[in-house]
């Protein structure tokens, strides 16, 4: 099977290749959690509570005797789903607002003042406030994080749109009477895919960290849903007895977020014309 040239260039750097492999393993474990874990994540065995890692329980057990590897594997599904939905929602809304603000001069100022106002608050504080208003649930966490990260995308897309709309091919399209919608969708949007893809990878990573932080603070996903954040939050009081129940979910969060960041850097370098020749 021939590997596409684009992938060869993307993974030419070893650190990006390692990040891609790590992310692929995490996604594979999440998709095949019921196969690779061998345990139900909610099955309790009080006699085996806080057991150290063994051949039977690869990552040990938690305070209720639940298999930690199974909970991390199933938790990957929830954590990655929240992050993916956040990235998709932020990209769609941010691209829409950024295109409108960048192309229509009259709408630029009001839209960007709202964006600036939202970005004046620290991300985690704004997310806590929104979840507090909406209530703790998986859907509300996604909605809150989408609202938090949409302004980031809007600013990037707006800046790129301001440049692209002044290019000759856009002026030519206007001169021959091409509709505004067609200009936006067929001429401007395709030229914005590079920054949009990079932002998507970064927001994916940010969302994993933000969900973990919200769950750790007790305002995120309900405790019965085994995300990586709720695992760390629920087990912190037992960390002095069994470090692994906090260590392994924390490592899952760190490795996944770091892999996404490195992959995003690789995509940015690949799509940047100034760096493409050196890759």
Please describe the structure with a list of short key phrases separated by commas or semicolons.
single chain, 279 residues, mainly alpha, 13 helices, 71% helix
Describe the structure.
This protein has 279 residues and is mostly helical. Helices cover 71% and strands 0% of the residues. It contains 13 helices and no strands. The chain has helices spanning 5-10, 14-31, 33-36, 68-103, 105-119, 123-134, 138-164, 168-175, 180-188, 193-216, 228-235, 244-271, 273-276. α5 (105-119) packs across α7 (138-164). It is elongated, with a radius of gyration of 22 Å. 38% of the residues are buried.
SSE diagram, text form:
Elements: H1 5-10, H2 14-31, H3 33-36, H4 68-103, H5 105-119, H6 123-134, H7 138-164, H8 168-175, H9 180-188, H10 193-216, H11 228-235, H12 244-271, H13 273-276
């Amino acid at each position: 099977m021939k590997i596409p040239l684009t992938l060869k260039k993307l993974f030419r750097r070893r650190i990006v290749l390692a990040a891609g492999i790590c992310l692929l393993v995490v996604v594979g474990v999440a998709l095949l959690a019921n196969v690779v874990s061998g345990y139900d994540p909610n099955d309790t065995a009080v006699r085996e509570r806080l057991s150290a890692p063994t051949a039977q329980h690869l990552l040990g057990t938690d305070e209720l005797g639940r298999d930690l590897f199974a909970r991390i594997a199933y938790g990957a599904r929830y954590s990655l789903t929240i992050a993916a939905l956040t990235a998709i929602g932020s990209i769609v809304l941010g691209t829409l607002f950024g295109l409108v603000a960048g192309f229509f001069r009259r709408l630029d100022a009001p839209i960007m003042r709202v964006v600036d106002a939202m970005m004046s608050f620290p991300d985690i504080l704004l997310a806590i406030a929104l979840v507090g208003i909406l209530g703790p649930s998986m859907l509300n966490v996604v909605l809150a994080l989408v609202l938090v990260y949409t302004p980031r995308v809007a600013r990037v897309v707006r800046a790129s749109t301001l440049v692209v709309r002044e290019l000759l091919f856009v002026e030519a399209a206007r001169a021959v009477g091409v509709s505004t919608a067609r200009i936006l969708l067929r001429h401007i949007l395709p030229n914005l895919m590079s920054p949009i893809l990079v932002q998507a990878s970064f927001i994916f990573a940010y969302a994993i960290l933000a969900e973990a932080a919200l769950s750790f603070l007790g305002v995120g996903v309900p405790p019965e849903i085994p995300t990586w954040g709720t695992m760390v939050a629920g087990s912190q009081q037992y960390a002095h007895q069994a470090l692994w129940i906090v260590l392994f979910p924390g490592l899952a969060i760190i490795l996944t977020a770091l892999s996404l960041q490195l992959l995003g850097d690789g995509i940015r370098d690949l799509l940047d014309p100034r760096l493409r020749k050196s890759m």
